[in-house]
């Protein structure tokens, strides 16, 4: 149980196991051991005929030989490049000057909600955290430990539980407190306890002024605690700011903020948004409320968080600056801000988690996995870290590890919707369509307004060609979603005819969606509809219209994010190159390269752009190299990149590689696969061509039949359909 609880001891045990295996398996060490054993056996055969003095000599020789053996093994261990490291033991040893503040028991509360005690505790932690002389355990860490102890959501704890929480948090001291009354004047008691001994070092009873607010009370308590702590006399506390200056001066705003954070951590975004908005209605300068809303609703709100960041704590400033850098595309700077935060708060799981997300967005999936692993070591119950672990493993093409991570996520939160939604995603991306549908159904059973799962249910029904069910699921989004979800649903409804090869009907649905977006003022979301229209126009052979639509998509997106020069640029290059405008296509590709370099972003978009230029000028080999670079950077989850690479390999006659790529893609059921529905369905056509060229006629016919079945009601005049019918007839005549 201790190994499960203590990461350091677990690592030491693992290293010991590793060393024993190294000694066992190393040839030099084994030869030395075998030599000593052989000599020992030879001595034993003659030992009974020896006098006692000879036996003593034998034992002395064996001791010398054993010492020599140890010397050899140690020398091997030193010289071998294993780089094993040992650190001083710190198994649940308290960190220097670490303080844990337990939830205050509100004895004056008749409602039983514990809201006031929770607020005072969180404010107290924030106030004390300003000091350079203390490392204060965060409220999130206390919550996590209580959850591990089976007391998730507890607002008050008994003395024994408090001691166990403080011990697990490796605190030197802990503060416990009680609110005896609030009217006519507040009365609060606090105790400073040494965690290792359980001794109460000091206690204090404070009586406030009549109707004194909780912010002033917390500031007074902070002063008292500083005087109670047994720190060196040389410690200079300086002049810490009032707690209202680093949070909010509104009690009601702070309560709503805490509720918002609670829902945010459960991934219940809609509920969290309500509380964060209410917090801002009560205090329009509450920086952290803007910080969370920037992630949930409108990322432009991060500028308001920056504007009011002086009214936040030191660690919150790092968070705000980090998110601002990430939204500017500078993930390295975003990570650096968080690294500074974890230097002071080494068990800040959210900092590690966010660093992992930024590495994930950079396409550096192995580094992301390492950071997510650190996150779950800090908190084995932090489900969202398992969630991202699953997606990172999936990007690396390790479906088994991805499912394992998701199952761990479900184990941490079996009654929440998001774990099942994520499991549906991973199953869908690994060809397990029916399992995906069951997972999404389970998510909406738990939470009937869980938008993501309704969306994905619609997608899975499209893949199963159950179009009525797909339409019903996607229309749920319009009834339960906000502006963004409504606009997205109008895009998704176009996938239903698009997947069936009904291109004109899909264009009509998109035009209706664009009209609704204008009424709904969903300008940014209209970009995706214009981009899809450009894809359909290219499919219809109208490159001029395709270019016009992709330009409209870029323009719509740029109205919201004028500094982002990446979205859809590689498709723009593709259409220009296919039209024959190589010079302009090359220039746009070069501009894209410079933008990505300046923002420290992965260069996969540039590689796509260059690949399309190379294809257009007939350099198919060079195009393959560019597409390989793009797929290598983006990982196994990149449907579009893997498709164009497979299509290029087919053109080069690399049939085995093309077939392997297309077969793997045919088992992927994803949203991007439906956004590229024309390509998803044509996988069957291209597999038919490849198998036919290899002489595998049965497999070729099966793929041709699947292709025709999906597009059985497609628009007339599609060249691939006519070609497939002719090829299928010829193959049937052959067989």
How does this model look, in words?
- The protein is mainly α and 735 residues long.
- Among the domains are: 2-79, no CATH class; 98-230 and 241-245, Rossmann fold (3-Layer(aba) Sandwich); 251-394, Tetratricopeptide repeat domain (Serine Threonine Protein Phosphatase 5, Tetratricopeptide repeat).
- The protein contains 37 helices and six strands.
- Strands 1, 2, 3, 4, 5 and 6 form a six-stranded mixed sheet that branches.
- A hairpin with a 5-residue loop joins strand 5 and strand 6 (200-207).
- Helix 13 runs antiparallel to helix 14 (331-344), helix 16 packs antiparallel against helix 17 (383-395) and helix 28 (569-579) runs parallel beside helix 30 (604-616).
- The longest helix is centred in the first third of the chain and has 28 residues, at 52-79.
Structural class estimated from helices and strands: mainly alpha
Silhouette: elongated
How far apart are the first and last residues' alpha carbons, in Å? 66 Å
Number of strands: 6
């Amino acid at each position: 149980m201790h190994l499960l609880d203590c990461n350091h001891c677990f690592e030491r045990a693992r290293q010991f196991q590793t060393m024993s295996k190294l000694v066992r398996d190393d040839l030099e060490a084994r030869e030395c051991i075998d030599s000593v054993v052989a000599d020992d056996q030879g001595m034993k055969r003659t030992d009974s005929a020896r006098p006692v003095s000879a036996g003593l000599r034998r034992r002395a020789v064996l001791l010398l030989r054993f010492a020599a053996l140890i010397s050899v093994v140690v020398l091997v261990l030193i010289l071998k490049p294993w780089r094993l490291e040992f650190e001083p033991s710190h198994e649940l040893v308290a960190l220097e000057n670490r303080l844990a503040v337990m939830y205050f028991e509100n004895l004056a509360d008749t409602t039983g909600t514990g809201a006031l005690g929770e607020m005072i505790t969180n404010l107290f932690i924030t106030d004390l955290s300003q000091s350079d002389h203390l490392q204060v355990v965060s409220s999130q860490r206390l919550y996590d430990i209580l959850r591990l102890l089976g007391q998730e959501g507890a607002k008050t704890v008994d003395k024994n539980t408090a001691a166990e929480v403080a011990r697990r948090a490796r605190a030197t001291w802990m503060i416990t407190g009680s609110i005896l009354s609030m009217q006519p004047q507040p009365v609060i008691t606090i105790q400073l306890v040494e965690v290792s001994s359980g001794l109460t070092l000091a206690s204090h009873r404070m009586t406030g002024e009549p109707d004194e607010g909780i912010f002033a009370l917390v500031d007074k308590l902070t002063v008292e605690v500083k005087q109670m702590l047994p720190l060196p006399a040389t410690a200079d506390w300086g002049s810490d700011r009032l707690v209202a200056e680093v949070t909010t001066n509104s009690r009601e705003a702070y309560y709503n903020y805490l509720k918002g954070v609670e829902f945010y951590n459960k991934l219940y975004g809609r509920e969290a948004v309500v509380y964060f908005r209410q917090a801002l209605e009560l205090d329009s300068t509450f920086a952290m409320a803007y910080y969370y809303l920037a992630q949930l609703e409108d990322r432009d709100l991060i500028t308001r968080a920056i504007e009011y960041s002086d009214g936040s704590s030191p660690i919150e400033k790092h968070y705000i600056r980090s998110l601002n850098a990430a939204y500017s595309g500078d993930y390295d700077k975003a990570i650096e801000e968080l690294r500074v935060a974890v230097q002071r708060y080494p068990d800040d799981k959210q900092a590690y988690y966010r660093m992992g997300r930024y590495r994930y967005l950079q396409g550096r999936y192995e580094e992301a996995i390492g950071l997510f692993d650190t996150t779950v070591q800090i908190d084995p119950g932090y489900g969202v870290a398992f969630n991202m672990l699953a997606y990172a493993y999936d990007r690396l093409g390790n479906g088994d590890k991805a499912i394992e991570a998701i199952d761990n996520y479900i184990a941490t939160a079996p009654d929440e919707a998001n774990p099942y939604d994520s499991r549906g995603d991973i199953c869908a991306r690994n060809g397990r369509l029916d399992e995906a549908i069951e997972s999404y159904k389970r998510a909406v059973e738990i939470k009937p307004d869980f938008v993501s799962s309704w969306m994905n249910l619609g997608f899975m029904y499209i893949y199963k060609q159950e179009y009525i069910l797909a339409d019903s699921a996607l229309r749920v989004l319009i009834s339960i979603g906000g502006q963004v979800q409504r606009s997205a649903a109008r895009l998704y409804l176009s996938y239903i005819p698009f997947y069936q090869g009904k291109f004109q009907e899909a264009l009509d649905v998109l035009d209706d969606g664009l009209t609704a977006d204008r009424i709904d003022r969903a300008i940014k979301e209209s970009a995706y509809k214009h981009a899809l229209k450009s894809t359909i126009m290219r499919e219809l052979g109208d490159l001029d219209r395709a270019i016009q639509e992709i330009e409209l998509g870029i323009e719509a997106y740029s109205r919201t994010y004028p500094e982002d020069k990446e979205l859809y640029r590689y498709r723009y290059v593709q259409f220009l190159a296919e039209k024959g405008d190589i010079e302009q296509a090359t220039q746009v590709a070069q501009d894209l390269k410079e933008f990505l370099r300046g923002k420290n972003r992965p260069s996969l978009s540039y590689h796509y752009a260059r690949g399309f230029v190379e294809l257009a000028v007939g350099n198919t080999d060079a195009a393959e190299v560019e597409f390989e670079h793009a797929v290598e950077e983006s990982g196994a989850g990149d449907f579009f990149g893997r498709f164009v690479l497979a299509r290029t390999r087919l053109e080069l006659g690399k049939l085995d590689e093309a077939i392997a790529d297309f077969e793997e893609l045919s088992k992927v059921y994803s949203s991007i696969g439906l956004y590229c529905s024309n390509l998803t369905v044509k996988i069957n056509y291209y597999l038919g061509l490849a198998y036919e060229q290899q002489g595998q006629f049965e497999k070729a016919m099966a793929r041709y039949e699947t292709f025709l079945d999906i597009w059985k009601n497609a628009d007339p005049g599609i060249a691939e359909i006519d070609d497939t019918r002719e090829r299928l007839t010829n193959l049937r005549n052959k067989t």
